[in-house]
Design brief:
166 residues, alpha+beta, Alpha-D-Glucose-1,6-Bisphosphate, Chain A, domain 4, 8-stranded antiparallel beta sheet, 2 helices, 8 strands, globular
Length: 166
Amino acid sequence: MKTTTSVQATFECSLERAFKTPILGDATKYLVGYGPIPATVGFTEDSSWGKVGGSRIPHSARSLMSKGGPVGHDEIWVREENRYWKWAVTDFTQWSLGFTKFQGELFFTPNEDGTIHVKWVYSLFSKGLLAPFQWLFVKVLWHGQMKVAIQNMKIFAESDAPFLYE
């Protein structure tokens, strides 16, 4: 089963800065957790991150849903400069509610007034008997986390905070 949710925001910064922030910025500043969803507290094995085929291992805080530590394998699939990112988290090393893949996409569109429209889409894939619970998780909790995260991305993009990756 595939369940999708999305959020949007308008960033007041350059197109390049809007594009780089979500993937190349400090994701621990915007993936701060939401309800039982744990915060992302760091990454390891990330020397190739930012390039197509680049990967890293996200680490979560301890929470009701997480023992803390490595979560899975995060890999960039597509990078279209200043337009589009596509990546996925797979090979989960912690309980994942039966999800097999979290696939993210980001779209960037310049507006006439110089701002940047950012659309973030996440599709979560699952198998098994938990489908109603998984659908509710995506539509309520994951969507809520994304709403908080995109606002934090906006703050980061509109600042002069340095990127962690190039």
